[in-house]
Amino acid sequence: MRxxxxxxxxxxxxxxxxxxxxxREGVKWVRFTIPASELHHSTHVEVPLHDERPIKNTSxxxxxxxxxxxxxxxxxxxxxxxxxxxxxxxxxFDMILGRTAxxxxxxxxxxxxxxxxxxxxVQNEDRQPKTHLSEERTMAPVQDKQNEGGGKP
Length: 153
Description:
Blueprint: E1 3-6, E2 12-15, E3 17-24, E4 27-34, E5 43-48, E6 51-56, E7 62-74, E8 77-86, E9 95-98, H1 99-102, E10 140-142
């Protein structure tokens, strides 16, 4: 997924569509779609809601956004981060990685360089998220009846 590190943003944000809330066994959940891009297929996701909080949009206006917790993979490193869900359709990246997600991870951001861990290996990556539904609160792709044939929608 095309992600930009944005140290000016406090919270990470993921581009989603078809956002809705529901309850499962007394727990608030969120359902959404990660739209298709050049790097991945459209993915339907259901995940427990971690939090809701006001987050400033690109214009500086606070808007109440759902927050989920996901497993972040950067190179060979993995850790849990909070991600807000938003419509980023007018933005250049599917996701921004905010400063709280990289704080205390011993990372150095070089604004003049890209892909310092290597170019994304799209050919050898499974094009679906490597996450599953569990007590760990990772994102879980929902079976997509329309896309079971494997082609990009």
